[in-house]
Design brief:
The protein is an all-alpha fold. Helices cover about 80% and strands about 0% of the residues. The protein is built from 20 helices and no strands. The longest helix has about 35 residues. The chain is globular. The protein starts with 15 loop residues before the first helix and ends with a helix.
Length: about 425
């Protein structure tokens, strides 16, 4: 089928059905990412925390990505992409179910542990799924194929926000911090128990959905793509040596680190910014967050289509400049103008992760599994920059000024796009 030519292998194999199954994973970790973002606003209210304290949610989540990515690569290298995906789904589901004892105990630390396990599963899934998508077809259409799969990630993000808005933020008691401060221990405890139960059961339901996906993939026949059998020459040390000398790859990992830092900061403090600018409550502000994700999703399809006529690295530069300008508007303006600029940051961010990933992995060949793990480890940027942005917000007393942090990150993205375009022109000229 011509319309699905990017999903055909060199020998004409059709990868449509396996691609659909893998795309569901992009949806599911998008759901996890953005449900986690709303937890910052939820726990800030439930436990009367500072922005820095709530940022520990992102530290646990994205720190887990860093810790699990390399072991995942070893596991996938020894077994297969499919085995890695099943392992990732198992951990993701286990993390969701751990929310139940966390809620029963009422421990913030236990919630962080559950998120750590959950995110470890997402890390394994991303380490396996993204290079698997790249391998399921010709190298020429690899970046376009990954962008198509990633286009369903923001749909999962939107569903995550809708679920959180209805079943977590919508269940928060409207009593403010001052009102909670004068409540008796029993009154406050009763409210917190109800609120934490809303968080807990929402994640337990997600865990049940994951078990269904696990079974579907377990009993489905998945292609090997371009997987190769591991040999003595194919060990980690030699792969690391080759990757370390690949400047395009190394700079791609660094750029992804900064980009994820920007995305996490923009989305983690989205609700807080809207509350500050428009005086909305958490649930109302989550509605504005959904507009950001709609912009993100629509832009993903637009940019994927544009890649047919415009080189990905040129689009990356344009998107980086657009995001940087919008960040300046978020910092320097107020009210609806600032909120509109915040929404547009998500529009421009939509291109970045899969494009940086695809550019960094270009012609990486047999090192794809370890190379993919390095790029997933760069997601640690989400933990680092979310904490920095929370600290800046607390220190300066301004959620608006904290957006200086993602602004700096977008500058790094622009520089990588410019560098790739320069070396690509030199290669073409040579």
């Amino acid at each position: 089928m011509k319309k699905f030519s990017i999903l055909q292998g060199k020998n004409g194999e059709n990868y449509l059905f396996p691609f659909v199954l893998l795309t569901s994973l992009f949806f599911m970790w998008g759901l996890a990412n953005n449900m986690t973002d709303t937890l910052l606003a939820a726990f800030k209210k439930i436990m009367s925390m500072t922005d820095f304290q709530t940022s520990l949610i992102q530290v646990a989540f994205y720190g887990s990505y860093f810790c699990f990515a390399l072991p995942a690569a070893f596991f996938i290298k020894k077994y297969s992409y499919k085995s890695g995906i099943l392992l990732g789904l198992s951990l993701y589901a286990a993390g969701c179910f751990l929310f139940y004892p966390a809620g029963h105990i009422g421990s913030y630390g236990f919630y962080l542990f559950a998120l750590y396990v959950l995110a470890g599963g997402c890390s394994v899934l991303e380490t396996a799924a993204s290079p698997y998508i790249l391998s399921m077809g010709t190298e020429k259409t690899a970046t376009q194929r990954l962008n198509l799969a990633q286009a369903f990630n923001p749909i999962g993000c939107m569903v995550g926000i809708l679920v959180s808005q209805s079943y977590i933020l919508g269940k928060l008691n409207q009593a403010g911090e001052a009102e909670r401060a004068v409540m008796t221990v029993e009154e406050l405890g009763a409210i917190q128990t109800t609120e934490m139960n809303a968080v807990t059961m929402t994640y337990v339901f997600v865990g049940m959905v994951l078990l269904i996906i696990f079974l579907l993939i377990l009993f489905s026949r998945m292609p090997k793509g371009n997987e190769t059998v591991s040999t003595g020459k194919d060990n980690f040390r030699e792969a690391f040596g080759r990757l370390r000398k690949n400047r395009r790859y190394i700079l791609g990992v660094i750029t992804e680190f900064f980009y994820i830092g920007a995305q996490t900061g923009v989305w983690s403090y989205n609700i807080r910014y809207v509350m500050n600018q428009l005086q909305y409550n958490e649930k109302e502000s989550a509605s504005i967050y959904i507009y950001s994700l709609i912009a993100f999703a629509v832009a993903r399809f637009i940019f994927t289509a544009l890649m047919k006529i415009i080189k990905p690295y040129y689009l990356l530069v344009v998107a980086g400049i657009g995001a940087a300008i919008c960040s300046l508007l978020v910092i320097g303006t107020t009210g609806r103008i600032g909120v509109a600029a915040l929404i547009m940051i998500s529009f421009f961010m939509s291109l970045m992760f899969p494009t940086i990933y695809g550019l960094a992995m270009y012609k990486i060949g047999e090192d794809a599994k370890f190379g993919g793990s390095g790029l997933i480890m760069s997601i640690l940027g989400g933990a680092v920059f979310a904490a920095i942005q929370g600290y800046v917000s607390d220190t300066l007393g301004s959620i608006s000024l904290s957006f200086l942090v993602p602004l700096i990150c977008f500058v790094v993205v622009i520089l990588y796009g410019l560098w790739i375009s320069r070396i690509s022109r030199k290669t073409a000229a040579g």
